[in-house]
Design brief:
β5 (213-216), α10 and β6 (236-239) form a beta-alpha-beta unit. With 376 residues, this protein is an alpha/beta fold. The protein has helices spanning 10-20, 36-46, 55-66, 71-76, 78-82, 88-104, 126-146, 166-175, 199-207, 222-230, 259-266, 275-281, 291-297, 309-312, 316-327, 331-343, 349-364, and strands at residues 23-29, 107-114, 152-160, 181-187, 213-216, 236-239, 247-249, 255-257, 271-273, 302-304. Belongs to the metallo-dependent hydrolases superfamily. Adenosine and AMP deaminases family. One of its GO terms (molecular function) is hydrolase activity. This is adenosine deaminase.
């Protein structure tokens, strides 16, 4: 790992250290991480109109449009990325580039989620969508390896919670469980579309011993998270930041937890927290006051994620750097949440242990900087 005692200053050292740290990403949307230049090129090919055709200006537009403070408005920005992801070639390219971009940021394992039902406008079957994405990830992994980066990218299939195709997507996930699909999810507007609308799909995957994660606790509150856990049987909570509503910090600095918060903490349910995205959708006011720091200190199983790299103009290294710089995190905290993410991938236990070892080994290597010894 890169030493922090270099002459070019602590800011550069922190960035280099975070990029060099092997990282795990549990919550990242494929259609939220398209390169702006790719959106421009593929939009021209399919005749889709964009706010601007300058890639840099388009990148700024996505961030500004997503920063409205409204989750529904945030979700509207995806019309431009989905428009270029309707063919097998488009999907393969986007998936390949996602794997390369993540690998360049030091991500060694990524669980990319997307909703196959949103990629059928040009006639692709659901299976063709999954196949194209899988092929793109494999191409990206191979190219990253040639560039000296090792990464594994797997799929989490999301059903749109405002639609009625969850049973189809659950069956699709199970049909591809030995072909790179590791989990099932529901995504989209949280308020008004609870997990109970898709109870049969969750029952199907649960009875097949297949893991599920659910977007909950971002736009909705404790009831939404309770349904995700107790109706959907979620093994992870996508976002989950609103569990902080059930945690009180006493004047002496101790934490008083409500019933649901105890359930989540006691059972080590991972929270897939996405700081910058939460600021944009109004789930948090600032990185400095983001509830994930309180949750981490209170003993919850916190992981840090990107959600949508294009809409937030971010990377996993950047998200972690913001927490160090603005929320007072040490790099020991960074290592802790990274290990937590590795422990809660939807891989098998032996694979998770190997992933944890890959993360912590650099911190134990003599002659390298241990992550927790420095602040920014």
């Amino acid at each position: 790992m890169t030493s922090l005692d270099r002459p070019d200053g602590p800011e550069q050292d922190l960035d280099a250290t975070l990029r060099a740290l092997p990282k795990v990403l549990l919550h990242d949307h494929l259609d939220g991480g398209v390169r702006p230049a790719t959106v421009v090129e593929l939009s021209a090919e399919v005749g889709h109109a964009l706010p601007t055709t300058d890639p840099d200006a388009l990148a700024r537009w996505f961030v500004d449009a997503a920063a409205s403070g409204s989750l529904p408005r945030y979700l509207e920005t995806f019309e431009h990325t989905l428009a270029v992801m309707q063919t097998a070639d488009g999907l393969r390219r986007v998936a390949r580039e996602a794997a390369l971009d993540l690998a360049a940021d030091g991500v060694v394992h990524a669980e990319q989620r997307y909703a196959p039902e949103q990629h059928q406008r040009a006639g692709l079957t659901l299976q063709q969508v999954v196949d194209a994405v899988r092929e793109g990830f494999a191409e990206g992994e191979a190219q990253a390896r040639e560039q000296g980066h090792e990464i594994r990218v797997v799929q989490v299939l999301s059903a749109m919670r405002q639609a009625d195709r969850a049973d189809e997507i659950a069956a699709l996930a199970l049909a591809n469980r030995d072909a790179g699909v590791v989990g099932f999810d529901i995504a989209g507007p949280e308020d008004g579309f609870p997990p109970s609308r898709h109870a049969s799909a969750f029952r199907t995957v649960r009875e097949a011993s297949f893991p599920a994660t659910v977007h909950a606790g971002e736009d909705g509150g404790l009831d939404s998270m309770a349904e995700a856990l107790h109706v959907a049987g979620a093994l992870r909570l996508g976002h989950g930041v609103r569990i902080a509503d059930d945690v009180r910090v006493e004047p002496d600095g101790t934490y008083r937890l409500g019933t649901l918060a105890h359930w989540v903490r006691d059972r080590r349910v991972p929270l897939e927290v996405c700081p910058s995205s939460n600021l944009q959708t109004g789930a948090a006011a600032s990185v400095a006051t983001h509830p994930l720091t309180t949750l981490l200190r209170a003993g919850f199983e916190v992981t840090v994620n990107t959600d949508n790299r294009l809409q937030s103009g971010t990377s996993l290294s950047r998200e972690l750097g913001l927490l160090v710089r603005e929320a007072g995190w040490t790099l020991d905290d960074v290592l802790a949440v990274t290990v937590a993410a590795a422990r809660h991938t939807f891989l098998h236990e032996d694979e998770r242990r190997a992933l944890v070892d890959r993360i912590v080994r650099p911190a134990r290597t003599p002659g390298t900087a241990r992550p927790g010894r420095h602040r920014a």
